[in-house]
Specification:
241 residues, 8 helices, 12% strand, three-stranded antiparallel β-sheet, alpha+beta, RNase H type-1 domain-containing protein, RNaseH_sf
């Protein structure tokens, strides 16, 4: 109840694969509702009891023999008599008598995930480069251009979210070309608000490169964007800047 009161929920444009893989597979909040039907099947009971399957990553690993890697066919054969290395290991470790069926069920569970939450599909992090390796020539702070949330599961929760807004489960792919040609630009930004905290508050921001530079800007924070009302405050002005 407290979480609902303060708008606590999972929200973000994209998440790194480690986070996607750590999500629970059986009670995945963003999975297609048909996952409930798959959950109660006999094969799923084997996945829970013998394979001790709990996370998306474990399901992905179990289903891996079904996937062609770089155009090369897996040695796995689509039947429960398959004696490939993966099936043999599964039988020895879990005592599962139908490894192929469990692989297929794992894949079916993964197929209920929308693109944003499926670690098997193309994700923004594939094109964001290694941000931490960008050289700092003068100790400057580099703008973090990444859409992807990194870290653990605790990093994916947000507070005071808009309950009237439904986040998209589509992926946002931006192909960023990284190169070694570093051209530094020195730019000053600032935001402020007149009558901050009052009903008559008015916020704005400024961007300054050099004198008479055409990129210089003065910006006024709009009262609303679409149906969303924007708060006129110092904090909002700084974000605008």
């Amino acid at each position: 109840k407290t979480g609902k009161k303060y708008g606590v929920r999972i929200e973000g444009l994209a998440f790194e694969r480690d986070i996607l893989r750590d999500m629970p597979i059986w009670h995945h909040v963003f999975a297609d509702p048909k996952i409930r039907r798959l959950t109660n099947a006999t094969t799923s009971k084997c996945l829970r009891s013998k394979h001790e399957l709990q996370t998306v990553g474990e399901a992905e690993d179990l289903a891996a023999p079904l996937i062609e890697m770089n155009g090369r066919q897996s040695s796995h054969r689509p039947n429960n008599q398959c004696n490939c290395r993966d099936c043999t290991e599964i039988r020895e470790v879990t005592t599962c008598e139908h490894p192929h069926l469990c692989m297929v069920r794992s894949q079916e569970l993964l197929d209920t995930l929308p693109p944003k939450w499926d670690p098997r599909v193309e994700q923004p992090e594939d094109y964001e480069g290694n941000f931490n390796n960008i050289p700092r020539l003068r100790g400057e702070e580099i703008f973090d251009y990444r859409l992807t949330t990194t870290g653990g599961l605790s990093e994916i929760f947000r507070v005071f979210t808009d309950r009237n807004h439904t986040p998209s489960n589509d992926t946002y792919i931006r192909r960023i070309e990284m190169n070694n040609n570093i051209n530094l630009s020195i730019v000053a930004t600032d935001g402020s608000c007149i009558n901050n905290g009052q009903d008559t508050a008015s916020a704005g921001a400024g961007i300054y490169f050099t004198e008479n530079d055409p990129r210089n800007r003065s910006l006024k924070l709009p009262q609303a964007v679409g149906n969303i009302k924007l708060t006129q405050s110092n904090q909002a002005a700084e974000l605008l800047a």
